[in-house]
Amino acid sequence: MHNGGVSFWWQQVGVPTPTDRLVGDARCDVVIVGGGLTGLWTAFSLHEADPTLDIRVVEAEFAGFGASGRNGGWLSSELPGSATAYAEVAGAEGVERMRTAVRDTVDEVIAVAAREGIEADIVRSGVLYVARSAAQAERLAGELDAAQVQRRIRVAGAVAGRYDPDCARVHPARLVSGVARIVRERGVRIHEDTRAVSVTPGAVVTEHGTVRAPVVLRCLEGFTAGLAGHRREWLPMNSAIIATEPLTAAQWDAIGWSGEELLGDEAHAYCYAQRTADGRIAIGGRGVPYRFGSRTDVEGRTQDRTVASLRSTLTSLFPSLGGIGIDHAWCGVLGVPRDWSASVAFDPATGLGHAGGYVGSGLTATHLAGRTLRDLVLGHDTDLTRLPWTNHRVRRWEPEPLRWAGVHALYRLYRAADHREDAGLDRTSRIARVANRVAGR
Ligand SMILES: Cc1cc2nc3c(=O)[nH]c(=O)nc-3n(C[C@H](O)[C@H](O)[C@H](O)COP(=O)(O)OP(=O)(O)OC[C@H]3O[C@@H](n4cnc5c(N)ncnc54)[C@H](O)[C@@H]3O)c2cc1C
User: How would DSSP label each residue in 323-381?
Assistant: First the structure.
């Protein structure tokens, strides 16, 4: 089994060699820090709106090195944050506008990819959520009964399900490298192998020189904590994935997964899975949720016990795959704000802006965030800039060791809640309710 190497997706297409490292100081109109999908979609949208803008991206490794090239490939319509938090600032109507915007963005990303020739194994196949206990079924409130779930995918122990058609399966590295390509083709320079060490109004200081610009946009998501002055802003939450060896036709038949819909469950420590274009199952979940001091992983390497735990989730869903080989394991970080809700912000007075904190639902949200940042930077008042996540403010996480102890305690509680629910509790465990309150979700 290959562990790390950034991700299985990057190993499939080839890990790129960084190009166009910054040499000395530079000036431009907009400098974007972070070459993931948030930074790249922002560059793309800004260039589309005003092709005369001189835009540069500074990226520590290579475009797509972070979560954008490592994720589970769910281009989903899930809200990037808590409906309750958004409702507090924009009411139920604001939450509904946000839901519609995210839903529309799924098609928008598919349309851009088709128009620009980005081959990313995209299939608008929908997602099947399954409940495997009475408590999960209560939370899911789905329209499918056990027999209907079994007709879609034969998940062991599924008692109910919900099918959301507004979700597409994608190959993350193919998508992000395609977006990097079209951004470069438009003349945006992506300075790879160029780590920002400080971000202030008008200037991004990197290891190789300073880029000055009136507009400076921070698009680092799970890596934000690595930047001076931002350590407690968003928690770098870890998520890990394993990819099996390709399944045989008989194995696919046995589990009845004949379509390409994505698959998720409703456990507190939930899992997410896709049937890859080359016939494997890639299944992800939390693993070790958080590393002390907001540290991130090394090139995606993940712990053996996380691999074992994901394998056991897979075989519990599909007992007939008990002997299946695991070809690859990796992990990455996503950004979690203290109120579990994403934000897109820009201050015209300082020229500083940022977007992120999507809490694991960033694939679609990065595109929406990029278009929203575009409108904010250009000073346009639009439907996008009036979405509830715009200029959303949130308090910082607790200092260490509280942060580490708190997050680990929280996930112990979620595991305990899952355990009780699996043992027959017919409603959401009180432990999980308490954990949610403590977490601020
Ligand atoms: C394992 C995993 C599975 C996931 N699955 C899904 C999914 O199926 N669906 C979904 O919607 N979301 C998913 N997510 C979340 C989603 O992938 C992210 O929210 C999204 O990709 C964030 O994009 P980004 O551009 O904001 O951040 P990133 O893609 O992380 O990009 C940040 C970039 O900044 C660079 N960088 C870091 N520090 C510096 C610095 N100092 N200077 C310059 N550059 C720097 C990094 O190298 C990186 O390229 C998943 C995340 C993970 C980790």
Answer: T--EEEEEEEEEEE-TTS--EEEEETTTTEEEEE--TT--TTHHHHHHHHHHHHHTT--
Give the model confidence (pLDDT) of 258-309 as tens digits.
Answer: 999 999 999 988 899 999 999 999 999 966 778 888 888 889 999 999 999 9
User: What's the Rg (C-alpha) of the chain?
Assistant: 21
Pocket of ligand 1 (CB under 6 A): 33-39, 58-61, 65-68, 70-74, 76, 195-196, 219-223, 226-227, 239, 241, 272, 284, 331-334, 356, 358, 360-364, 366
Number of Cβ within 10 Å of residue 162's Cβ equals: 18
Residue with tokens 């009845």: 256
How far apart CA 132 and CA 401 sit, in angstroms, is: 35
User: Best mutation site among 363, 367, 368 for ligand 1, i.e. most ligand atoms within 8 A of its Cβ?
Assistant: 363
Which residues, listed in sequence order, are joined to residue 212 by a DSSP beta bridge?
27, 203
Tens of pLDDT along 220-231? 999 999 999 999
pTM greater than 0.90: yes
Strand order in the sheet with 196-200: 26-27, 209-212, 203-206, 196-200
| H or E element in which residue 88 lies | helix 83-115
Task: Give the Å distance between the CA of 284 and the centre of ligand 1.
Answer: 15
